[in-house]
């Protein structure tokens, strides 16, 4: 049979097949390459959310930057939060290239954030109450971020994979910065130790939620299957959460801290940590921007936007 | 250690014995340290709120350098027996601080946590004018009689090039844009001039600085500043006042505003939980 189409333009199906073959062979897709619409939209959603989460994620820690208790800590946390903003910038650049064919820009991303169409990561809606939280975010939230991001280091989309390489390298420093704060507190006075334990207790549920629900039953939808199919990530949310426990539970215990979940244990038979589920109804609230600090943090970005609009206008002059 | 360095150290010890020398050096170091410390603090309040993300990253980098300079000056004070550097930065009352009042003023209405309606025009003008003033001081300090301060000046000077370029670019661009931006910038320039004199003031210690060859006089530093700034003002068709004001008082003599009190309250909040603890 003669394939009359092959002489001219390949069909969408043929392009799709070719595309899937490429990513299954481990090839990287670049910004200018053909890609299925669903792949492009999945990436835009994922990377714009990641980028904007880095930027919104600067805000909870930033609350402690001017208050850091020594000159060394002031310098350390300033550099750390600056890195987060830098990651945000890098990721928004990657998203901008993907959005170009749709005629959208960074302005649209920021507008989507302010209107609530674009969500930021659930962990950054939580409240901070003490310097212990500043340490804990650096140590365990960044630790959790390293685990999810390492899972995508070999993502099929080349520009994202390359950005993640750089980000992960810096996140390792952040986790060390956070761990140093926590160590100083854990080895300090009774009050300082209590500060760490209190931070851990308050952040525990947020850390469990960090990786997202185990399946779509919780929120009705889940992008896990799509991102795995497109070779953007390899592991499921639950596998990542288990990796986090395996890496960090021994460290938490070695500092003399108590696990906030008394019933938690490692089941040697199936090789899995057994733990109490967080309240997933809270998670659903948070991802609708109804978390404890959602509005305050969005308000800060809104002020930064509206208050400096004259500056942006002047730059376009 | 070379013979020359040994001689220098002996020399330095002799000088510190000289009546009034240690006190004068200490005062000057406090002026330098407190200036950088409070302005870096003001910069850190801007984190996450700058006009665009690229600026957030760049401004934060400058604030870190500035905080690093403050830390260096505080550690020179520590070496001179003034006390622990962290204590000097966090525990001193407003009346004991020597920073210029211009640098302690809040970034705008609100706080960094609640409704920060910060003023970018004021921030650009304050930082640009400050970095230029710091530059002329640092150049003068390269020849100071106190060797450790001269060495610190060499290090600081290397980073100032980028700070100056950064703020000068903003200054030129926003004024050059005309319209609302120019109006806002002109207002900020007028406001900053009202207290710019405080940056150059050497307070009650001015005579001692001169007698001990620590730094050029206020008049020399102002002349050097004007020499650098005049071409920029001319190119933008802006006028510079003949005299710089000190309307809110002279911070070098411990005069300060409520803005500094509030800033100290915030920046030492965690430190004060336990001043003896290791953080």
Structure characterization notes:
Chain A has one domain: Ferritin, CATH 1.20.1260.10. Helices cover 63% and strands 2% of the residues of chain A. Chain A has a two-stranded antiparallel ribbon with strand order 1-2. In chain A, a hairpin with a 4-residue loop joins strand 1 and strand 2. Chain A is globular and about 75 Å long. The termini of chain A are far apart. The model of chain A has no long low-confidence stretch (mean pLDDT 94). Chain B is built from eleven helices and no strands. Chain B is globular. Classes of the chains: A mainly alpha (317), B mainly alpha (279). Chains A and B meet through helix 2, helix 3, helix 11 and helix 12 of A and helix 2, helix 3, helix 4, helix 7 and helix 8 of B.
Which SSEs are present, and which pair or pack?
The complex is a heterodimer of chains A (317) and B (279).
Chain A: H1 12-24, H2 37-62, H3 71-99, H4 106-115, H5 131-150, H6 158-186, H7 190-210, H8 224-229, H9 237-254, E1 265-267, E2 272-274, H10 280-286, H11 294-307, H12 309-315
Antiparallel strand pairs in A: 1-2
Chain B: H1 3-17, H2 21-45, H3 53-79, H4 85-90, H5 101-104, H6 120-141, H7 147-176, H8 179-200, H9 206-211, H10 218-235, H11 258-267
């Amino acid at each position: 049979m003669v394939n009359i189409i092959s002489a001219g333009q390949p069909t969408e199906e043929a392009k799709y097949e070719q595309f899937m073959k490429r990513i299954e062979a481990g090839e990287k897709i670049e910004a200018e390459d053909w890609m299925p619409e669903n792949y492009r939209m999945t990436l835009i959603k994922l990377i714009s959310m990641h980028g904007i989460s880095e930027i919104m994620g600067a805000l909870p820690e930033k609350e402690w930057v001017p208050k850091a208790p020594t000159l060394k800590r002031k310098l350390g946390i300033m550099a750390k939060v600056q890195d987060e903003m830098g990651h945000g910038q890098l990721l928004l650049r990657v998203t901008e290239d993907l959005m170009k064919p749709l005629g959208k820009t960074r302005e649209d991303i920021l507008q989507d954030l302010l209107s609530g169409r674009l969500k930021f990561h659930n962990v950054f809606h939580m409240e901070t109450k003490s310097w212990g939280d500043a340490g804990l975010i650096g140590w365990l939230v960044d630790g959790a971020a390293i685990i999810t991001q390492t899972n995508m280091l070999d993502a099929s989309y080349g520009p994202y994979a390359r950005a993640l390489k750089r980000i992960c390298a810096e996140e390792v420093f952040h986790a060390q910065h956070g761990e140093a704060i926590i160590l100083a507190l854990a080895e300090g006075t009774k009050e300082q130790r209590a500060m760490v334990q209190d931070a851990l207790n308050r952040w525990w549920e947020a850390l469990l939620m960090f990786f997202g629900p185990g399946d779509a039953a919780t929120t009705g939808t889940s992008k896990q299957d799509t991102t795995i199919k497109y070779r953007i990530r390899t592991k499921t949310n639950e596998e990542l959460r288990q990796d986090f426990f395996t890496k960090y539970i021994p460290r938490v215990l070695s500092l003399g801290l108590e696990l906030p979940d008394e019933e938690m244990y490692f089941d040697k038979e199936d090789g899995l940590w057994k733990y109490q589920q967080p309240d997933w109804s809270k998670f659903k609230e948070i991802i609708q921007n109804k978390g404890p600090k959602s509005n305050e943090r969005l308000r800060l970005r809104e002020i930064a936007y509206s208050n400096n609009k004259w500056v942006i206008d002047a730059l376009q002059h | 250690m070379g013979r020359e360095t040994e001689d220098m150290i002996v020399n330095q010890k002799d000088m510190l014995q000289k009546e009034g020398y240690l006190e004068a050096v200490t005062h000057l170091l406090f002026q330098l340290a407190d200036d950088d410390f409070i302005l870096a603090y003001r910069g850190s309040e801007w984190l996450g709120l700058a006009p665009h993300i690229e600026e957030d990253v760049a401004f934060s980098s400058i604030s870190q350098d500035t905080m690093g300079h403050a830390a260096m000056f505080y550690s020179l004070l520590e070496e001179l027996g003034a006390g622990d550097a962290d204590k000097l930065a966090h525990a001193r009352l407003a009346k004991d601080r020597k920073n210029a009042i211009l640098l302690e003023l809040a970034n705008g209405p609100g706080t960094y946590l609640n409704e920060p309606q910060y003023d970018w025009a004021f921030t650009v003008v304050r930082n640009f004018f400050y970095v230029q003033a710091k530059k002329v001081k640092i150049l003068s300090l390269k020849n100071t009689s106190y060797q450790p301060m001269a060495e610190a000046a060499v290090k600081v000077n290397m980073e100032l090039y980028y700070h100056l370029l950064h703020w000068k670019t903003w200054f030129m661009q926003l004024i050059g844009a005309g319209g609302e931006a120019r109006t806002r910038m002109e207002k900020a320039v007028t406001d900053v001039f009202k207290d710019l004199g405080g940056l150059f003031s050497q307070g009650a210690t001015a005579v001692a600085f001169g007698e001990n060859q620590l730094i050029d006089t206020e008049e020399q530093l102002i002349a050097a500043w004007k020499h650098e700034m005049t071409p920029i003002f001319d190119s933008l068709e802006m006028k510079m006042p003949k005299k710089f004001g000190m309307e809110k008082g002279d911070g070098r003599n411990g005069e300060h505003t409520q803005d500094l009190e509030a800033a100290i309250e915030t920046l030492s909040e965690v430190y004060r939980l336990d001043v003896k603890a290791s953080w």
